[in-house]
Specification:
Blueprint lengths: L5 H10 L9 H22 L4 H8 L30 H4 L2 H17 L1 H11 L3 H12 L8 E2 H11 L3 H16 L9 E2 L12 H7 L15 H14 L9 E5 L15 E2 H6 L3 E2 L7 H4 L2 E5 L8 E4 L1 H9 L3 H16 L16 H13 L13 H13 L10 H6 L2
Antiparallel strand pairs: 1-2, 3-5, 3-7, 4-6, 6-7
Helix pairs in contact: 1-2, 1-9, 5-7, 5-15, 6-11, 7-11, 7-15, 8-9, 9-10, 10-11, 14-15
Length: about 400
């Protein structure tokens, strides 16, 4: 994007403090203020931000100490994962929440039918998917978004483990105000710096925010029409293929290993069907899909529902890099459109392991030559299938599910 050049990235990386030697918050705050003036202001100025905008946005801003993932003297890195998408599937896919989202979304699809029809014609993204994201991100615009975006972004730009990323988002927020897209006081965000009803990061606003009601503005705070149009544009630009489904809940026979999971093991859906995988509905896979690629998704291994998902599932993950998130959106969207019920398969009860425990498990698997996709403490498809491969190799029934017993067994 024009407002972030290679020079900006280099400057951010060179000047963002990697280690702070201050022993108290007062000293850190002084360093923070110096960083705003000596590092952020030159970058902002290079990207067309006036001194008046810079002062109005950041004058008096202080670090927000209670944010996750901050690193400063005397405080270890916070490695706890607070996002709901990375908790156990059974907790994330609460039946009441799914039903409430679907029922509310179905009503809003009717209310905004003309707008959604126009957006689908322009982007190829179906109404139910757009509305499901709206519901997940901000409870259809009803969620409280209380934080000062400039405090969040500047704190994370100075003190978080992803300082370069949040510094660029801080610059993008300044550009938004400079260009008149939003007032300084309107920029309220989540604890991660996401804005408005679609929960766009500032850089996403600059790239994808759209005018859905024809008033010449892209108001993702107060306009449902602009919110819906912006979500549609985002998914279109991230590879949503018109006319394709996101995926299908399926039955996976015992002859098909759960270790086949993952996008890098995709194959034609007709090949999955030839292996004995069938839709839980009893219907055949749609003829337009049968010759297209799909991949196996088993978020809880053998202890939960299974799915064959398409490239549109990957487009949903561009919105939030979580299998659970994309599955929630696709499933709730189906319920909105078709009036269908819950998952056919039940979510089993999984052991609640800490992120540190998962990291240890991943490291032990890596030492034995398994590719877990990085020992980050998050259970993705590479970790699940590595567990399944280890279980099979050691004469156990493959569940592809982490557990305390497995942690003790793998050394």
């Amino acid at each position: 994007m024009k407002y972030v050049t290679f020079f900006v990235w280099a400057l951010c990386l060179a000047l963002t403090p990697l280690a702070l030697h201050a022993q108290d918050r007062g000293a850190i705050t002084a360093q923070f203020n110096d960083w705003l003036g000596t590092t952020i202001w030159p970058i902002a100025q290079q990207n067309g931000v006036s001194r008046a905008t810079f002062e109005a946005a950041l004058s008096g801003v202080t670090p927000k100490w209670d944010l996750p993932d901050l690193v400063y003297a005397g405080k270890p890195a916070d490695t706890n994962q607070r996002q709901a998408e990375f908790r156990t599937p059974a907790a994330y896919f609460d039946a009441r929440a799914l039903s409430n989202n679907a029922n509310t979304g179905r009503s809003l699809m009717t209310r905004h039918a003309d707008t959604l029809r126009r957006i689908e014609q322009q982007t190829g993204v179906p109404a139910q998917i757009i509305v499901a994201i709206w519901g997940r991100e901000s409870s259809f615009g009803n969620a409280q978004i209380p934080h000062d975006a400039f405090q969040i972004l500047s704190t994370k730009g100075f003190l978080s483990t992803r300082a370069d990323y949040f510094t660029s988002e801080l610059i993008a927020a300044l550009v938004m105000v400079e260009r008149g897209f939003a007032t300084r006081n309107a920029l309220k965000s989540s604890w991660a710096g996401a804005l408005g009803q679609p929960q766009f990061m500032p850089s996403n606003y600059l790239q994808y925010a759209a005018d859905g009601n024809g008033d010449g503005r892209a108001d993702i705070w107060g306009s449902p029409e602009d919110t819906l149009a912006s979500i549609g544009v985002y998914l279109q630009k991230h590879g949503w293929q018109a006319g394709r489904d996101w995926g299908f809940e399926v039955t996976v026979p015992e002859t098909v290993s759960c270790a086949y999971e993952g996008p890098d093991q995709a194959r034609k859906i007709q090949d999955w069907a030839a292996m004995g995988i069938t839709r839980v509905s009893g219907n055949a896979f749609p003829s337009p899909e049968i010759s297209e690629n799909g991949f196996l998704l088993m978020p809880a291994g053998r202890l939960g529902p299974a799915f064959i998902v398409t490239s549109n599932f990957t487009a949903l993950k561009a919105y939030n890099e979580s299998d659970a998130y994309a599955l929630f959106v696709g499933h709730v969207g189906d319920r909105m459109k078709y009036g269908s019920g819950g998952f056919s398969g039940a979510w089993g009860t999984l052991d609640r392991l800490s992120r540190a425990d998962i990291t240890t498990l991943q490291q032990r698997l890596e030492r034995q030559g398994y590719d877990v996709g990085g020992a980050d403490g998050l259970v993705g498809n590479k970790t699940r299938r590595s567990i399944g491969a280890w279980q099979t190799q050691n004469g156990l029934t493959a569940t592809c599910t982490p557990s305390r017993a497995l942690l003790a067994a793998i050394q």
